[in-house]
Design a protein that fits this description.
single chain; six-stranded mixed beta sheet; four-stranded antiparallel beta sheet
Amino acid sequence: MTQPTDVRGEHLPVALSLAATGVPVLPLRAGKVPFGNCRTCAQNACGGRPNMRTPGPCRCTAPCHAWAAATTDPRVLSSPAWELAWRNAAAVAYHPGGAGVTVVDLDDLAAVQWARVALPATRTVTTTRGEHWIYRGVMLSANGVRPGVDIKSTMAYARWLGPGTGAITVLPDVVRALAVKESPTVRLTAVTVPTRAGSGDCPHRTPTYLERGIAMAVRRITEARSAVHATVYRTFLAVLSTHGRCGCLTDAHVARLFTAAQAKGESLRHCIDAWTNASTTLGLIRV
């Protein structure tokens, strides 16, 4: 993401430059909002994409459906169907999750001051009232995680304001925790970690070993580019095969795995099902 800063009247060239590096883009109209759905797609007549985790099944060629319209296809971006939108666009936006990043949107000076104390340094982009802090990695988007702070990653869009300054760093757990704390969809009160009847001491229960295993599992899920559901299942299976019988795992460990899976578009129900299926396959007592 080292492309030139957007220049008024040159939105399409900027969009094409970003798309060439794998950043999905879309036009924004005045007010920093996407263009409305076309007549064919109005009121979800097309099958509906606005609330879906991935674009489709709509085949509309116009820049509809907010974040889900973002694309890296230069033919689509330059097509006649998008021409009017680019001509009337006020800015270029991008889908952070599709670009493999998370934007911590700091909306005012107080939020920026908090971030400088609470968050690891990373690439920053100056905005009208605050800053965007950009981390490598994706997660669930969440608004209002604290005063003046929104998280934009999956199923969201952010305005392109230039490449920013500073080295981009890996998405830290402290940012992921903001969304976990605020979002009821990732609460794990219904999940019980399987244990072995009468289990004794774990033969490999060391903080380093366990932490390395969980970190590797989270990274495997986060880096999945396709077959996400299968990857989540296989990862859960691997974790449970190593730690599921001895009582190593805690709800905090499972929460990290579920959070990573949900950031890739898995629902809580799918996470629970994958965990249950993996446990059943391994012959664990129950989940």
